[in-house]
Amino acid sequence: MKANLPAILPLFRARLCPVATRPAARGRLLCACLVSVLLLGISLAAQRLVISFDEDALGARPDGFFFAASRQPTPGTWEVLGAGNKRHLSHTADPTVTLRGISVAGFSYDAPDDVRVATRLRLSDGDRAGGLIWRYRDVNNFYFMVVFYGTKTAGLFRVTGGNRVALHSVNDINLDPNAWHSIAVVHEGDDIRGTIDGIGILRARDRAITESGRAGVWSAGNTTGWFDDVIIERAPD
Fold this sequence. Notes:
Elements: H1 5-16, H2 23-46, E1 48-51, E2 65-70, E3 77-83, E4 86-92, E5 102-107, E6 115-126, E7 129-138, E8 141-148, E9 153-160, E10 163-170, E11 181-188, E12 191-196, E13 199-205, E14 214-220, E15 223-234
Antiparallel strand pairs: 1-15, 2-5, 3-4, 4-15, 5-14, 6-11, 6-15, 7-8, 7-14, 8-9, 9-10, 11-12, 12-13
Helix pairs in contact: 1-2
C-alpha cells in the first residue's frame, strides 16, 4: 500500500501491541512491537492490509479511518460494535437521508493503483444499500460498488466531478438479508470486476480515474450497515 510509513507506525503499533505495566516488560514489549511494525511495514510494501476491528474500542470510531458524506449533510454515525473480541464497524441508519446519500468510511492512506478491496457486510435496516469504495480522491471523485437489497440489484459506479455514472449493473440477486455476505472488487488498469460470495457478477472497463486513491466501505445514509474484515491489497496477477 502506498503509505507514509513513519506516519502509519503509531496506528499499527496501537493495533498490534497491548499495554505492559512493568518497565522491563515495557522495554521488551516495545522491541517486540517495533519488530512487528517493521514486519508490517514489509507487508505494506507488499501492499496488503486486513482490518478486523476486533481490537478497537466499542462505541468509538476506529483509528486510521476517515469519514465523509456525498449528497447528504454528514457521514452520520459510525462506530465499532460487537461482543467480546468479535467486533465490526457499524453505520446507523438516518431516516431523514434520501437513498442517494452515501456515507463513506475509508482507510486514511492511499491504496495501490491496481487494487483489490473486499469486506463482509450485513445490511440490516433501512433501504439496505452499501458496498465498497476505491480510487477515492474526494467526495466528488471515486469508484464504488453497490449491493442494494431493496431492488435486488448490484452495480459498479464511477463518480467524477460529483456526477455518478453507472458502469454495469445486474438484477435479481437473491441474498439473505439477515446473513453476512462477502463482496470484493478488483480494479486493474481499466478493468473492474466485482464479486458477491465469491461469484463474479459485475464487470466493466473505465479509464476516467487512473490515479491511486484511498479505499474502504460505504453505507447509504438511510441504511444500518455492518462491515468486517476489510481487506485492501494490490490486485492479484
